[in-house]
Design goal:
The longest helix is centred in the N-terminal third of the chain and has 36 residues. The chain contains 17 helices and no strands.
Amino acid sequence: MTRSDDAAPARWLPLAVFLLSSAINYLDRQSLATLAPLVRAEFHLSNADYGLVLAAFSIVYAAGAPLAGMWIDRTGLNRVISIAVALWSCAGIATGLTHGLGGLLGCRAVLGAGEAAGIPAAGKAIRRYLRPAERALGNAMNQAGISLGMVLAPPLATWIAVQAGWRAAFVATGVLGLLWIPLWRWTAGANRAAPLPRAETAGAARLLRDRRLWAFVAANALSMIGYSLWTNWTTLYLVDVHHLSLPQAAWYSWIPPMAATLGGFAGGWLSLRFIRAGARPARGRFRVCLLAGVASLATAVVPAAPEAGWAAAGISLSIFAVAAFSVNMYTLPLDVFSGAHAAFAVSCLVASYGAVQAVVSPAFGRLIDLYGYPPVTAIAAVMPLAAAAVLWSTRSVE
């Protein structure tokens, strides 16, 4: 089978199985966001301390992503993703065994090292299996996998925590990752794709000198601030601001990830329509990013919501817009750069997300401790438009 194969199942089925790893990736990651009130209480953490835990993950995630991307391009998709899923699954299990802030920081750092390969590997798979016009929809599928993990985390982790304690939830989600590895190895063996040319280190160095890559990196960092906010702070927001219990918060916190799924598919579908209408791929994707940036301005009014249901609706609109932006943002490197460097190009965007999350998480925690949520939602509201301005001003979408 090759990427040009006209049989839809030959192109989409193995990709769908592969993207289950994205669901497991975010299920492991979001278990902490879901159970943060319990972990914070047991370890006596402030919001600033919680932000530091997020930063420990993010720093390693940012540093590891480009290395993971080069590793995937040079060594091969199947081997690297198997190692990465095993690493992050074991780190998730270890999180359930830790007994202090130091151990929690260490486990989240190792989790970041493993998960750094997840999105670059997905980009490599999308570039391998799908045609150019379909790639934003492929990223929408990846967003659906991510959102599935985020949707499952609140009810699943909360139910396990109520039944057996919060530690058991981390162990259970880690085991799911270990079970995915043989499933993918079997699927990959049954649906072999023609290998893409392996990248060379010199090629990656040339890519780093391309100004378009750095424009994509900067734009992605700005656009993902709102995504970082809601994927890490939604449960705490509902508990602290609307005074919900953890089970009550779980009834609402699965809704924004569903909105992210819809936003991802809406963004992918809309860019596909623009491209089929005659727009160049990069220009079509930029149009969606601009529209999403305008919609994201609604983030600023979330703190004005009078009750939890309205707050969940506002958060959902915010993350819908960010997801529509993101699926096109992560597709731009696949349009512009060669398949031999697909994982590395995407990994640079992953690194930018990790870097900005490492910076803003402790800062957001401190702002929330001092002033509540209005300042951080105001910041998140304008960032996607700022990202669109970066893309336009650097002519990276011409």
